[in-house]
Every structure is written in C-alpha cells, then in structure tokens.
Amino acid sequence: MQDQTDLDEVWFIVSPQNPLKSSKSLLHEFDRLKMVELATADHFKFKVKDTEFHMPRPSYTIDTLTYLSEQYPTHDFSLILGGDNLNHFHKWKNSEELLNQYKIYVYPRPGKSKDLKHKNIHFVEAPLLDISATFIRKTISKGGSVKYLLHPHVMDYIRDKKFFI
User: Fold this and answer.
1) How far is CA 55 from CA 50, 51, 79, 139, in A?
2) Residue 66: alpha-carbon gap to chain centroid
3) What is the DSSP annotation of the chain?
4) Res 3: pLDDT
5) Span 96-124, pLDDT tens digits
6) Is residue 18 exposed (0-12), middle (13-18) or buried (19+ Cβ within 10 Å)?
7) Is residue 3 part of a domain?
8) Which of 23, 116, 117, 140 is the most exposed place for a label (fewest CB within 10 A)?
9) Domains in the chain: how many in total?
10) Do 30 and 90 reside in the same domain of the chain?
11) How confident is the model at residue 23 (pLDDT cuts 50, 70, 90)?
C-alpha cells in the first residue's frame, strides 16, 4: 500500500476489540500490539499506535478516525481495507460518513468483493495473495512452516509464547 498509493506513512492501529468479532477468538491485545511492532520495526514509514486501547470498547473505525483527525490536525487520514471487508462495510458504524470523509484504499482479496463505487474508494492494483491470519494460525497449529509468511521476530514471539500450538 505504501508503494502503490500517495500515502506518506501507514499507521497500524491495533484494535483491542473488533465489534464484528468475538473477543474470545483473539489473542490478548498487548500480544497483538507487540507482534505488529515486531513486524514493522524496520520500516520507517510504518507506525504502530495503541490509540484504541484508550478509547471505549468495542472500537469503531469512525470514532478512531475522528479522534486521530482531532489529535493530528495537520494529517489527512485514510483507511486501508481488504476487498473482502467491502462485503460487510455497510454494517460498520456510520459507514456513509466514513465514505464521505475519508479516502478508502482497497487491497484485493480472493473471492468476490462488493464493487462499491464512490469517489473516495480507490482500488489498488496489487498481487492477489490468498493468505489469511486463519491460514497462518492453522498452519502453525498443525506444525507446518510459515517461514515466508511472517517476520522472523513475530514467529519467534509466537513460538516463545506457544500461541496456536
């Protein structure tokens, strides 16, 4: 996304609780934050933020973007989505407001995604990778290798913590 768009930086906002997912299915928020920090540490244009850790839960994207826009008034924020998220984007809190106020960059994902047309939606031309967190977790739990799918420091962290085993 960094290379295919006009984004100056990519901020990774780790969410303690996605309102569309069961919190029971997620690793602890601080472990997820740590893994994102490990995965992005050597990229100077990547920033990891725990903004939603300090906000009411569950976290809603519109609230987070509004908060960030207020805290960083010189920044123009955008949203990066996987194409599969367009299928249920209409369920998001204030989805129309999101569409009207922020650029949305859409990365292609396998399967059919809704073809939402809006001036702020930008489909990015990028390789179609059929890799998901679910696939990675299942592969690890079966003892398989994810050597080329995860940053080595993230894999070390997962192994040390005995996640998905």
Assistant:
1) 10, 7, 18, 33
2) 17
3) -TTTSS-S-EEEE--S--TTS-GGGSPPHHHHHHHHHHHHTT-TTEEEE-GGGGS-SS--HHHHHHHHHHH-TT---EEEEEGGGGGGGGGSTTHHHHHHHSEEEEE--SS-------TTEEEPP-------HHHHHHHHHTT---TTTS-HHHHHHHHHHTTT-
4) 87
5) 999 999 999 999 888 777 778 899 999 99
6) middle
7) no
8) 117
9) 2
10) yes
11) low
Assess contact for 16 and 57: CB atoms under 8 A: yes
Interacting residues of 8 by C-beta distance below 8 A, sequence separation 6+: 45
Cα torsion for 151, 162, 134, 36, to the nearest 10°? -40
Amino acid at 114: K
Q: Which amino acid is at 47?
A: K
Amino acid at 44: F
In which domain, by residue range, is 153 found?
131-165
Q: Does residue 159 have a pLDDT over 70?
A: yes
Two structure tokens written together for 139: 């592969």
The single-letter code of the amino acid at 14 is V
Residue of 96, 94, 7, 16 lying closest to 43 (CA atoms): 7
Residue 162, both tokens? 């005995």
